């Protein structure tokens, strides 16, 4: 786990290489405090690597420059430092992330004649690319963002892992192409404009969407999409080509027909194998444990795989609020797995004290205060000496763990003509109190509506009510029109809804939050559920294996975890998720929110109807309405924009 950055010269314009590399390197120091490395190359000259400073290069005006900040996890000796180059000086490589199956790949490459000089996964990545070129990316089990220079073909390749667990941003000016792990490093490069992306701002304000496409909140900065690689020919560096190497729609599925019991057994096998691979580390590791099914399964698997004598440490956030607290379930798992438990509680004043810090950490606005609770969990893990932590991120989007998937499941049954099953499932969900029948049926119908009607329903939802405090016309006048087709809530089957959340609406944002929060504390966060093997297998299963006829979500996974995870946890019917008591918190910090809404900066934001904002806030303060998440988005966006000196009237 590390941080990377770099540039490719497009024109002959002079660039202060030393200053540029040092500034970008310092901005991502938190991602890799263990070592710093620089690598450069100029046409007609060889590759130079310096693992200490950017000032000692013989070449003063390189065509390509790589920066690496290392968090040492595998082969913690200096042999694992980066950048790394091939023995023939043809290739230069930097990597952020981990290739968990590096041991198996190394053995395969040895048989093909490759010789290894380190125990690092980075050398395996390099030799894999030399052997298989871009086809190597499909062979990796892991998370990675990688930059590769090929001096013979005059190409630079930037690649990102299957699901975008590791970030990789880029931007292009008239003179240079820049890339990096975090937006803050790109903003250190000369010529990169600090201008807001109005489309991203609009999507965030209307529907709370973040990271759902390649656009960032900055107009000039984009993200390489998950499962893609970008190729730059150094002879024509202004032209960028993007290719997709992984597509779940065409991925080879494990099976088309399988019994529920066999599916559960196979999923158990895949899950345990994944956790075992994700435990590969030369430094101390632990687990994030909420008390839910997913994190409990990971904790249980880690105990079995690590053995009874291993000191397994778990980290739990407790709200001390009966509505949202899962501590009692976490305690069951802690006792079963005999872990060394660390618990944290937070107060709203903690959020206020750390808000500027977390906004800086996240680089962009974020969706809820649960992101802050996660940030503090990772801080606690770092304080305990942990360098690697495993968590259950992605399981809900893979295994249908959210209640919103109920409507997709029923819509899918109706669309396929299984009306009786749809009615029975609806009745079961209503009887258990999992859904409000009238609202539930409306959402099912919305999913089944023709796109033109569904689009209008979503427009009304996004632009009326509390969101009528926003001038959507201002966005239209500035060339940004809301697109309300193919959004969450429009999928017409369960698997379609899961695919949307995996690719666009849920998981990309959650992975962004987790990466920035963990790396802020120089901690490697691993997500064993988010692998092509597990996702492709689950995607091949019938809907009823995920949400059964009685309305039990994650049905096949719960069955897979029997005897591994305590029944008290597997049989839970409540869905809490990782939540903070936001309404209580916001009532505690109302003076700060009021101050933000009244600030000169907020008042000057052109897309807010300040009079309506005032009335809305007054309704909350007087107790007429619950705290709407939209208000959090308003103040979150305003503080982020103000901190970064962004202006919307230019």
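^ Assign residues to that structure.
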């Amino acid at each position: 786990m590390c941080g990377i950055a770099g540039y490719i010269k497009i024109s002959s314009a002079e660039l202060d290489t030393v200053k540029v590399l040092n500034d970008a390197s310092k901005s991502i120091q938190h991602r890799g405090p263990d070592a710093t490395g620089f690598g450069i190359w100029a046409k007609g000259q060889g590759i130079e690597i310096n693992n200490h400073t950017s000032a000692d290069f013989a070449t003063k005006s390189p065509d390509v420059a790589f920066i690496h900040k290392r968090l040492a996890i595998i082969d913690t000796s200096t042999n694992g430092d980066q950048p790394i180059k091939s023995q023939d000086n043809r290739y230069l490589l930097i990597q952020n992330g981990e290739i968990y199956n590096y041991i198996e790949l190394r053995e395969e490459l040895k048989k093909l004649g490759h010789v290894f000089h380190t125990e690092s996964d980075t050398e395996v990545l390099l030799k894999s690319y030399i052997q298989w070129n871009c086809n190597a990316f499909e062979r990796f089990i892991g998370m990675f963002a990688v930059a590769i220079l090929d001096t013979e073909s005059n190409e630079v390749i930037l690649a990102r892992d299957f699901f975008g667990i590791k970030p990789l941003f880029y931007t292009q000016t008239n003179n240079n192409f820049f890339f990096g792990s975090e937006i803050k490093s790109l903003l250190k490069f000369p010529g990169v404009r600090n201008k807001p992306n109005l489309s991203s701002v609009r999507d965030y304000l209307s529907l709370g969407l973040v990271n759902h496409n390649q656009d960032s909140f900055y107009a000039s900065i984009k993200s390489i999409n998950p499962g893609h690689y970008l190729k730059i020919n150094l002879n024509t560096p202004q032209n960028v080509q993007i290719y997709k190497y992984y597509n779940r729609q065409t991925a080879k599925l494990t099976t088309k027909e399988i019994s529920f019991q066999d599916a559960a057994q196979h999923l158990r096998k895949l899950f345990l194998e994944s956790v075992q691979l994700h435990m590969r580390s030369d430094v101390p590791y632990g687990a994030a444990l909420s008390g839910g099914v997913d994190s409990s399964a990971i904790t249980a698997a880690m105990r079995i795989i690590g053995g009874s004598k291993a000191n397994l440490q778990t980290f739990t956030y407790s709200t001390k609020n009966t509505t949202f607290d899962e501590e009692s379930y976490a305690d069951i798992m802690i006792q079963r797995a005999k872990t060394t438990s660390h618990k944290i509680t937070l107060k709203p004043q903690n959020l206020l004290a750390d808000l500027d810090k977390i906004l800086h950490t996240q680089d962009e606005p974020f969706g809820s205060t649960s992101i802050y609770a996660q940030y503090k969990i990772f801080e606690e893990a770092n304080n305990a000496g942990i360098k690697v932590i495993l968590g259950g991120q992605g399981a809900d989007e893979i295994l249908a763990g959210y209640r919103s998937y109920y409507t997709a499941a029923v819509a899918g049954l109706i669309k396929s003509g299984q009306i009786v099953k749809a009615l029975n499932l609806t009745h079961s969900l209503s009887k258990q109190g999992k859904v409000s029948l009238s609202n539930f049926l409306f959402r099912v119908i919305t999913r089944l509506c023709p796109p033109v009607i569904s689009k209008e329903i979503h427009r009304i939802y996004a632009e009326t009510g509390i969101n009528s405090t926003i001038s959507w016309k201002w966005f239209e006048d500035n060339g940004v029109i809301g697109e309300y087709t193919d959004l969450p809530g429009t999928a017409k089957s369960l698997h379609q809804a899961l695919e949307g959340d995996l690719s666009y609406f849920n998981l990309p944002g959650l992975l962004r939050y987790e990466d920035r929060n963990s790396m802020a504390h120089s901690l490697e966060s691993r997500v064993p559920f988010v692998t092509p093997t597990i996702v492709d297998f689950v995607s091949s299963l019938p809907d009823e294996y995920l949400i059964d006829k009685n309305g039990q979500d994650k049905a096949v996974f719960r069955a897979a975890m029997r005897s591994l995870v305590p029944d008290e946890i597997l049989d839970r019917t409540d869905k809490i998720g990782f939540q903070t008591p936001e309404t209580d918190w916001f009532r505690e910090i109302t003076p700060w929110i009021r101050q933000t809404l009244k600030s000169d900066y907020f008042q000057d934001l052109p897309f807010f109807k300040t009079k309506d904002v005032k009335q809305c806030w007054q309704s909350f303060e007087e107790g007429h309405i619950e705290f709407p998440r939209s208000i959090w988005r308003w103040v979150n966006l305003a503080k982020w924009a103000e901190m970064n000196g962004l202006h919307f009237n230019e």
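The first strand starts at residue 2 and ends at 9.
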